[in-house]
Amino acid sequence: SMPSEMLMKIFSYLDAVSLLCVGCVNKHFYHLANDNGIWLRIYSSCFRPKRTIWKMKSEQTETVSLDCAALHDRKPGYWKKEYIFKQIAAVKTRVMRLVKPVDPYTGLPCKNKEAIKASGLSWIIVLKDKNGKEHIMEKANLSFKDTSVTILWYSTNWPCLDILSTLKLFGVTPLLPDQSRDPSKNRPRRRSLIAEYHLANLTESSVALGADKLVQLFSLNPGLLVGLWKEKNEIAFVMGSLHYHQLLERSTLGSATVQYALPPDKPVLDDVDPEHGLHGYSLHLDMHGGSCTYLCGTFKSLFCRKGDIANGYLRLTVVSLKDNTKHLPLIGTLGLSWETDAFKGNVKDCYVMDVTLLDETGKPFWCFSAPVYMELSSKASSLYDYMGHIYTTDYADSEGKVCVELVWLEETKEYFIVNLVLYISIRKVNNWYGTNY
Questions:
Q1: Three-state DSSP string of the chain
Q2: Which structural domain range is residue 247 located in?
Q3: Which residues are CB-contacts of 288 (< 8 A; sequence separation ≥ 6)?
Q4: How many CB atoms lie within 10 A of CB 379?
Q5: Per-residue pLDDT for 50 more than 60?
């Protein structure tokens, strides 16, 4: 029942974030909160125009300038949109400046952590039950590595797994980053869908990675790990591992319902000859268990010959079984760390693998970050220097495969990588180079 004039007077004292929030109350408030006069004042106080859109001859002209064509010739909400677009553009400019320097070893931006902080980016998971109700989980711990960020969500009030149908992973950015430093979920924010997972028959449709005394781990492709309490068969935590390559685009440029579509790769102009295979590739490999790093290294001058092309894949040998000078030890006790509000633990024989394969120009060619597990092999080591049990780790997606062999040395209590091979899909190579293997 309050007159619109009084509401407009009250709204004129609000800041941009408060105006956006009050506009969500009802249609009447929405239209009043779109007033160009209020938003032009906010816009003018934040962004000084390079040239004035009116001529100011005296103080009187300046006071009535807001009633000029800048207001009357614009549709309601015009200056609100201009203000939001300008704020977003300013943040994007700052983020682009941070991601411009590139690490020569990883081929990725050097300041990913700073860029994520500058953009105000965070990640949430939304669980939808069979009745359509959404449960938003926001509390998360972040762990930054050279080429990925690991996110751990945990809570004491997870919904029952039996009633859940889907899990969605979103990147979330504040609509006005500079004004939205308060992480409150009531602030205006924008969601970008990264991935969607179906939770029906989770234990049957996913890959079991391992277990400790309290939880069982199940892997969902791509890059998501769900921990279930053993006794209750309910969610204990969810862990996501996101590779930096195109992370900002996936986390900010998608919509709330549609994932961001990656642009097609333009063929690299090169002297690639199907008769000779690939050459000049480099690999940056990171093996970690959330907080602990077990191996971090770069391997250069990788290549394959014509004989290495078979069964739809090109083989790149990184560590050879025959060349013991390149065999690598893993530092620390291999396992994947987890924690909740009340408990924490470590699941042995599984970890997160970050692979960043660069082409001969130093451009990221194949990148992923995913949880993997080690499996005891039936064969014994035939190497004189390494007598012990052999473990294997395999990973595969639509673009390639990774095969790792490790030997456990009981005397020194450590693993050694004795064989590491990448298999790149011929289709991936053909699309990348515009050639035909």
A1: CCCHHHHHHHHCCCCHHHHHHHCCCCHHHHHHCCCHHHHHHHHHHHCCCCCCCCCCCCHHHHHCHHHCHHHHCCCCCHHHHHHHHHHHHHHHHHHHHHHCCECCCCCCECCHHHHHHHHCCEEEEEEEECCCCEEEECCEEEEECCCEEEEEEECCCCCCHHHEEEEEEEEEEECCHHHCCCCCCCCCEEEEEEEEEECCCHHHHCEEEEECCCEEEEEECCCEEEEEECCCCCEEEEEEEEECCCHHHHHHCCCCCCCCCCCCCCCCCCCCECCCECCCEEEEEEEECCCCEEEEEEEEEECCCHHHEECCEEEEEEECCCCHHHCEECCCCCEEEEECCCCEEEEECEEEEEEEEECCCCCEEEEEEEEEECEEEEEECCCCCCCCEEEEEEEECCCEEEEEEEEEECCCCEEEEEEEEEEEEHHHHHHHHCCCC
A2: 108-175+188-251
A3: 145, 150, 294, 296, 351, 352, 354
A4: 9
A5: no
Please give the structure tokens belonging to residue 144.
Answer: 């930054």
Model pTM score: 0.84
Number of structural domains found in the chain: 3
pLDDT confidence of residue 62: 41
- Whether residue 321 is found in the same domain as residue 203: no
Q: What CATH number does the domain containing 34 carry?
A: 1.20.1280.50
If you average pLDDT over residues 221-248, what whole number do you get?
91
CB 64 within 8 A of CB 56: no
What is the model's pLDDT at position 378? 77
> What distance in Å separates the CA atoms of residue 245 and residue 248, rounded to the nearest whole number?
8
* Least confident among 48-62, 123-137, 275-289: 48-62
Question: Is the Cα dihedral 265, 266, 270, 276 positive or negative?
Answer: positive
- Cβ contact 140:153 at 8 Å: yes
77 in a structural domain? yes
What value, to the nearest 5°, has the Cα angle with vertex 241 and ends 238 and 242?
130
Neighbours of 14 (CB within 10 A): 15
Gap between the Cα atoms of 430 and 423, Å rounded? 14
